[in-house]
Amino acid sequence: MDKNFIVQAVRGMNDVLPAQIAGWQQLERVTRELFAAYGFEEMRVPLVEHTALFKRAIGEYTDIVEKEMYTFTDSGGDSLTLRPEGTAGVVRAAITNGLLRGARLKLWTSGPMFRHERPQKGRYRQFHQIDVEAIGFAGPDIDAELIALTARLWRTLGITRVKLKINSLGTIESRRVYREKLVTYFRQHEAALDADSLRRLEGNPLRILDSKNPDMQAVVSGAPLLTDHLDAESREHFDSLCAMLTGMGIEYVIDPRLVRGLDYYSRTVFEWVTDALGAQDAICSGGRYDGLIPQLGGDPTPAIGFAMGVERVVELLSQTGAPLAPAAPDVYVMASGERAQRTALALVERLRDDLPQVTLHVNLGSGNFKAQFRRADKSGAALALILGDAELERGVAALKPLRHEAGQTECPLEELAVRIPAILADLAEPNNAV
RNA sequence: GUGGACGUAGCUCAGCUGGUAGAGUCCCGGAUUGUGAUUCCGGCUGUCGCGGGUUCGAGUCCCGUCGUCCACCCCA
Question: What architecture is the A331-427 domain classified under in CATH?
Answer without folding.
Answer: 3-Layer(aba) Sandwich (3.40)
